[in-house]
Amino acid sequence: MREVVQAELLFEGESPPELPRPTQIGQAAVEYAKTADILTKATGFMDAYDYTLNPYSGCSYGCTYCYAAFFSRSPEKRDTWGYWVRVKENAIERLRKKHPAGSLNGKLIYMSSVTDPYQPIERKVKITKELLEVLSSDHKPHLVVQTRSPDIVRDANLYREIVENGGKVQINMTVTTDDEEIRRQFEPYCPGNSRRLDAIGTMSDQGFQTCVTMTPLIWLNDAEVFAEQLVDTGVKRFICQPFHFNRGKFVAKTREGAFRLMAEKLACGLPEFRGKYLKRYEEWRRTLEKHMSPDSGLTLGKGKDGFRPPF
Ligand code: SF4
After folding, report:
1. Ligand 1 pocket, 115 CB below 6 A?
2. What are the extents of the domains in the chain?
3. Which of 97, 172, 181, 306 is packed most tightly, with the most Cβ within 10 A?
């Protein structure tokens, strides 16, 4: 139900005819701001890349474990993570101006590190799409795209152009559980799991290099069935890592509900569930490893190593 509401864009007053400027999308307020440069030199976890590319600040998907919230500029923005998104309205002009044609040939770009490039606002303002149009026509980038949205399928033709023009593309889809109740608790405004798996399967069928990132792997009801579903998508690369309890934007309210649900699933109290979860995670991982062995042409990476550039 929330996904339906989220897709509805609300407008304030009259919109300019050439560019609709929604001010609200689902639960999130939409802001517009200029940026100095749309590409940021990659550091920290992403330091093996040349640049990160974030078409938006903030993220209306509002995952309760999102570490990106901590990169927010103010405590207020951090505390209201998931309830705002800022459109970098001059992104295309900045990309053209700061990075002339050919200057990004062979450059490793990760899109996106602190937002989702295909969150619902993208359907309306199409910043990600226009950035891809410039990248595909003017450059030969080595691009990794990270999303939780099936909307990525819309831009398959642009990714194909990048590859045909001499660039490289890997499409990463995040799936964190096989349980929709858990998914709604931790990722309340994200598309459901089956839609994400369908989308990454579609991109695999179209010949793209693809990867499923279980980062974090929160919960599995049936690891065997889940592993078979993943392999059936045609994806060859997988990354998984456990839930980090000390990271994320959790405020007391969301943490209590989410953790209680996990504790119920593990049939234990809140004080013990962390240790029990980590034990269960190791069991899930062993099952995934069994289905994703290098012998069958599949890889299962983990942590920072898993996120190293795949080209
Ligand atoms: S989709 Fe990514 S950036 Fe957006 S809230 Fe979830 S984890 Fe954070």
Report:
1. yes
2. 2-304
3. 172
Q: What pairing do the DSSP bridges indicate for beta strands 108-111 and 51-53?
A: parallel
User: What CATH homologous superfamily does 2-304 map to?
Assistant: pyruvate-formate lyase- activating enzyme (3.80.30.10)
CA dihedral 166, 92, 121, 304 (to 10 degrees): 50
pTM of the shown model: 0.92
Buried b (16+ CB within 10 A) or exposed e, 195-211: ebbebbbbbbeeebbbb
Inter-residue contact 11 to 23 (CB < 8 Å): yes
DSSP state of 270: G
277 ligand 1 Cβ < 6 A: no
How many angstroms separate the Cα of 173 from the Cα of each of 116, 146, 279?
11, 6, 25
Q: How confident is the model at residue 5 (pLDDT cuts 50, 70, 90)?
A: very low
Ligand 1 centre to CA of 61 (Å) is: 6
Question: How many Å lie between the centroid of ligand 1 and the Cα of residue 66?
Answer: 6
